[in-house]
Design brief:
The chain has 459 residues and is α/β, with parallel strands linked by helices. It has three domains: 241 residues, FAD/NAD(P)-binding domain (3-Layer(bba) Sandwich), CATH 3.50.50.60; 127 residues, D-Amino Acid Oxidase, Chain A, domain 2 (2-Layer Sandwich); 56 residues, no CATH class. Helices cover 34% and strands 26% of the residues. It is built from 13 helices and 18 strands. The strands form four sheets. It has an eight-stranded mixed beta sheet with strand order 5-4-13-14-15-12-16-18, sandwiched between helices. It has a five-stranded parallel beta sheet with strand order 7-2-1-11-17, covered by helices on one side. The radius of gyration is 22 Å and the shape is globular. The protein starts with a helix and ends with a helix. Bound molecules: flavin-adenine dinucleotide (FAD). The site of flavin-adenine dinucleotide has 36 residues, from helix 2, strand 2, strand 8, strand 16 and helix 9.
Length: 459
């Protein structure tokens, strides 16, 4: 009997590395050494004799790097992603904190929705705050400690095929053409991955790319943090489209090296933070008092902005002809409106798909359909969370799924109830942090609880 998407999602969330390495392939090559590629490499280290990560950026560079331009912006590690990291790298939290990451357990997190303070779910999952380069650097350190993983500084330029299988990656090393042979190639080249072009040029089918245009404008700034151990380490103020069609929200996190990182996001012509004065003024005027207090600290450096045009997914699962020896992970498959903070957690779940697939000792001489089917469940879930919320924005014009009016009314009730009702908030948090499948919210019991909570709140 085949499992439902919700059951698959639950199983993926429970995936643990095998007790012992059990190689099913000789050499795996991962193209792209960012979060998704590194997590894939971690999983592959259990199932391959050797793993090579090809990354165009200099691996010695820590901190911001050109290959990950979004790295300057605030990145939330959802509790679901944090749980996965702890499983893949036991002791991750301790080591992260020792290197400057800041604990973000439920009592240290505060969230406002449309200016109303949300209840804390006391037994919610733990998480961590830190800059994106810190989090990625921590993952890289852990992966490169594995004896069978190495990084090659090179730019991948194409695939090597042998009949119906991918057997390697072509790359430029210091301007000289070369190639890495592989039994399995993993595309982790991010949102701008060239894999579709490479497949098409080699006569294969190009996967359909689906987009939802969001025109999101991000701005992030750093402030000096004087408290060594602040009571609140993650503060978020979210605005629903009904309340504000163009300001998405703001957040600030305690991060390494005694700093706060603050972010503001807007849609369309709303471009927050073009200057430092504008950033500070908006923090003071548009958000709850904690943001005004933050704005009183010294700003460190400039405001960094980032424009994100669309959420997009490439439907590899739907192509009829796909070569053997090839899979994709992370943003290369699907990247979402970053306001929901899903990217790194989705990448961790793709790694769980890879682990499940390789554990089944698959025949690698045929396309990895079983992997693509598992990954579709993760992409569908993340896509539905992100796009169903974005469809409520006035400037987003679809495509609307069937039953959208009813489902958007129900989700508005549930989201509103998360402000006052701990049980509804717990169930909602489990879904938005990608620990539970979105269908777990579609129960009459939860909707009734939400309606009752909203009625109580109105009184
Ligand atoms: C503004 C913004 C804010 C975000 N906020 C969050 C957040 O709060 N929480 C969250 O979880 N996610 C967030 N994300 C998403 C997150 O950044 C990504 O999901 C995450 O980085 C995983 O991406 P990835 O590893 O698939 O790709 P990327 O991080 O984009 O990395 C791709 C890698 O591939 C390399 N590469 C590309 N082409 C080649 C080539 N030809 N040869 C060799 N190497 C190559 C690049 O150098 C790079 O290292 C945000 C994204 C944006 C844009």
């Amino acid at each position: 009997m085949s499992l439902s998407p919700a059951q698959v999602f639950t199983a993926l969330n429970a995936v643990r590395p095998p007790e012992q390495a059990s190689p099913v392939l000789g050499k795996a090559v991962v193209v792209g050494g960012s979060v998704a590629g590194l997590l894939a490499a971690r999983v592959l280290s259990d199932y391959a004799d050797s793993v090579v990560i090809i990354e165009r950026d200099d691996p010695q560079v820590t901190g911001e790097r050109p290959g990950v331009p979004q790295g300057t912006q605030l990145h939330a590690l959802l509790p679901g992603g944090f749980l996965q990291l702890e499983r893949l790298f036991p002791g991750f939290r301790e080591e992260a904190v020792a290197q400057g990451a800041v604990g973000a357990p439920p009592p240290a997190r505060r969230t406002y929705l449309d200016g109303r303070l949300k209840v804390v779910v006391p037994d919610d999952a733990d998480s961590l705050a830190g800059s994106r380069p810190l989090l990625e650097g921590l993952i890289r350190q852990q992966v490169l400690r594995l004896p069978n993983v190495k990084t090659v500084a090179a730019r991948a330029t194409g695939l090597v095929f042998d009949g119906a299988a991918v057997t390697g990656v072509r790359c430029d090393v210091d301007g000289l053409p070369g190639a890495e042979s592989a039994d399995l190639v993993v595309d982790a080249m991010g949102r701008s991955s060239r894999l579709s072009d490479w497949l098409e040029h080699a006569g294969w089918e190009r996967p359909t790319t689906r987009r939802m245009t969001v025109h999101l404008n991000y701005a992030t700034a750093l402030f000096r943090r004087t408290e060594a151990n602040p009571a609140l380490t993650v503060v978020m103020a979210l605005l629903s489209p009904k309340m504000s069609p163009d300001v998405a929200g703001a957040a600030f996190f305690a991060i390494e090296d005694g700093r706060w990182m603050a972010m503001m996001a807007g849609y369309g012509d709303h471009r927050p933070g073009r200057t430092a004065d504008d950033f500070v003024r908006r923090l003071r005027e548009q958000f709850p008092p904690e943001f005004g207090d933050l704005a009183g600290n010294e700003m460190l450096g400039d405001v960094r902005t980032y424009a994100h045009a669309d959420s997009r997914r490439r439907d590899f699962h739907a192509v009829r002809r796909f070569p053997a020896g090839l899979v994709s992970v992370g943003d290369a498959v699907a990247s979402f409106n970053p306001v929901y903070g899903q990217g790194m957690t989705a990448a961790a779940l793709h790694a769980a798909c890879l682990s499940t697939y390789l554990r089944s000792k698959p025949d690698l001489s045929v396309p990895a359909r079983a992997y693509l089917d598992l990954q579709k469940v993760v992409v569908d879930a993340a896509w539905s969370i992100s796009t169903s919320a974005d469809l409520a924005l006035p400037h987003v014009d679809g495509p609307y799924p069937r039953g959208y009016r009813l489902s958007s009314w129900a989700s508005r009730q549930i989201v509103a109830a998360t402000v006052s009702d701990v049980e509804v908030a717990r169930r909602f948090n489990d879904v938005v942090s990608m620990r539970e499948h979105p269908r777990s919210l579609a129960t009459p019991g939860l909707l009734l609880a939400a309606l009752r909570a909203n009625r109580r709140a109105r009184r």
